[in-house]
Design a protein that fits this description.
Elements: H1 2-27, H2 34-45, H3 51-57, H4 62-74, E1 78-82, E2 88-92, H5 94-114, H6 120-135
Antiparallel strand pairs: 1-2
Length: 139
């Protein structure tokens, strides 16, 4: 059992690594990276969210997310606005919305290729299994 669990963990990590490499490479064609596009997605899902909230949703530290969003603001795709107290709220600019949409098209193509070996029922099963795993509290 010990060895099987390690193989399972490695297989999940390998699939994630391949997917991330393919996405990062393809997103460069539209002028962004996977980390940047993921930040744009998070801001789009939660306009006005704080850096702390967005860092958590993108699996980054607050410091790393702050540096990333600073670059995105310099590129003119994210706007930072004063919030309550010391909080800074984050919003996409029209250019950010366009970059996000271009990234969605790229991601759809890349992910279709990444999961092409699985028929639709297997994809649905995999999604269900991963959602069940991710719903479990962290150990």
């Amino acid at each position: 059992m010990h060895r099987e669990l390690q193989e399972l963990g490695r297989a999940v990590k390998q699939a994630q690594y391949r997917q991330h490499r393919a996405l990062d490479s393809a997103l460069s064609a539209v002028g962004t990276t996977l980390a940047q596009w993921d930040a744009l997605r998070a801001i789009s899902r939660s306009p006005g969210a704080s850096a702390r909230e967005l860092a958590a949703s993108t699996f980054q530290t607050e410091q790393a997310f702050g540096a990333l969003v600073g670059r995105l603001a310099t590129q003119g795709v994210v706007e930072r606005r004063p919030g309550r107290g010391r909080r800074i709220d984050h919003h996409l600019t029209p250019a950010g919305e366009q970059l996000l949409a271009a990234g969605h098209k790229v991601a759809d193509e890349v992910l279709a290729t990444c999961f092409s070996a699985l028929p639709d029922p297997d994809r649905a099963t995999l999604l269900d299994l991963l959602q069940r795993l991710n719903a479990e509290p962290a150990a």
